[in-house]
Amino acid sequence: MWTPAWTSRTSAVTTESTPTKPSSARGRPRSESVGEAIRLAARQILASEGYDALTFEAVAARAGVAKSTVYRRYPDRIALVVDVGNSIADLQLDRDTGSLRRDLIVALVHTSVVFDDGLTAAMLAAIVGQMAHDPALAQAIRGTVMARRIAVMEQIFRRAIERGEVPADIDWWVHSQRLVGPLFMRALLTREPIGATLIEQLVDLELKSIGITG
To answer: Were 41 and a residue from 62, 102, 120, 159 both cysteine, which residue would form a disulfide, CB within 3.0 to 4.6 Å?
Structure first.
């Protein structure tokens, strides 16, 4: 059977010019990326299938790792969800800009970036829905993920107290809830975009209630 000359030339060029990929590029992820692969798989399962579908078997299959690898890292499903939540909470920025208004805007803008991600919003909805009838999960999330976010807001208001911007007896917890609440509502319920304009409006309204204008 006749074979066109260009076929043999193409085969030769391909063989000589295409580098052979190392075996580590195929198959399971390398050890330094295993944790991220597991967390991403968990996020995707929570977002697309819900909490009940989040099994170690499903996570391992989606992440491309052995089931034993997931079991070695997490004692149970709640620990995995907490780790995923903490990895997202780490994205909330706390930066001392020198003023309460700017500190709040910076922190809330970074929070909104997380909430505006469709995958994260769907994942959070699944977790919050499960928390309503799973006391162990609710306690774990409140004591870790939510506690870290609360700590950021507390630190912002404590700096404002030290600068003399607000009174020492300010109820920073109530003000924090009123600022973050609308972001959660849009992320979990209405799915409306948040954006910097809304955040500035929320911050200015809250500061006005404290007696800070301009």
So the answer is: 62
The amino acid at 68: S
For residue 140, the SS3 value is helix
C-beta pairs of 73-79 under 8 Å, 24+ apart in sequence? 73/35, 73/38, 78/136, 78/137, 78/140, 79/140
Tens-digit pLDDT profile for residues 47-105: 999 999 999 999 999 999 999 999 999 999 999 999 999 888 765 567 889 999 999 99
Whether domain 91-210 has CATH 3.30.365.10: no
Provide the CATH topology of domain 31-76.
Arc Repressor Mutant, subunit A (1.10.10)
From the CB of residue 28, how many other CB atoms can be counted at a distance below 10 Å? Answer: 15
Amino acid identity, residue 94?
D
